Amino acid sequence: MITDPNIEQYMHDLLPPRDEVLAEIEAYAAEHKIPIIGPAVARFLTALVKMTKAKRIFELGSAVGYSTIWLVRAAGPDAEVHYSDGSPANAERARGYFERAGVASRISVHVGDALTALASVPGTFDLIFNDVDKDGYPAVLDAVPDRIKPGGLFVTDNTLWHGRVLHPQEATDAAVCLFNRRLFESPQFYTTQLPIRDGVSVAIRL
Ligand SMILES: C[S@@+](CC[C@H](N)C(=O)[O-])C[C@H]1O[C@@H](n2cnc3c(N)ncnc32)[C@H](O)[C@@H]1O
């Protein structure tokens, strides 16, 4: 945990309950150790989408669709949200949740490498949410600047990486550090970072 566990718990206890589908995904993810963003980051993401009126959204690394459902609900009836994940089993489960949540018609499901999927969809996006495996973060940063409209957002989860950014030992830790440094140095983005849960970076495309 990045913040004091008591603060983390306090913040978590303030969150309103989720509906049946989201609550079920949270329980499934906990049981199967699937790392989802969780409700605190999901609400922050929702606020960003609503503040910027983002409609066209691409998600890199969607697992069983928890964050995707938050994104599509935040973006509203005109949303165009792209789910991507390398696991066919995750995608199959996510499709079921999308149907039950009543949002399937606004989500395109891409199975396979997330950056290949991004390259297959033309145009720019209002928001790209990055949550792929952390060693892939530098490659994501190479790919996304041309795919976000000016004023659009590039949001990345886990950028404090359980605190391992302080003392990087493994290649994954080094990849997150490299990503963070390059993102803050990039003249293409105005970047901020918040210590919510595992760290979330929000970069505005200039
Ligand atoms: C942290 S989980 C995503 C959680 C999801 N964003 C949520 O909060 O509900 C990361 C997911 O990305 C997928 N993934 C990782 N690297 C990927 C890549 N390069 N291309 C496609 N999927 C990838 C994994 O299969 C995994 O399901």
Describe the protein.
α3 (38-52) runs parallel beside α4 (66-75). α5 (88-101) links the parallel β2 and β3. The protein has eight helices and seven strands; from the N terminus they run αααβαβαβαβαβαββ. By secondary structure, the protein is of the alpha/beta class. It has a seven-stranded mixed β-sheet, sandwiched between helices. It has a single domain (5-205), classed as Rossmann fold. S-adenosylmethionine binds at residues 35-37, 61-63, 66-67, 84-87, 90, 113-114, 131-133, 136.
Question: How are the SSEs placed, and which strands pair?
Answer:
Layout: H1 5-14, H2 20-32, H3 38-52, E1 56-60, H4 66-75, E2 80-85, H5 88-101, E3 107-111, H6 114-120, E4 125-130, H7 137-143, E5 148-157, H8 171-185, E6 189-194, E7 200-205
Parallel strand pairs: 1-2, 1-4, 2-3, 4-5
Antiparallel strand pairs: 5-7, 6-7
Helix pairs in contact: 3-4
S-adenosylmethionine binds next to α4 and β2.
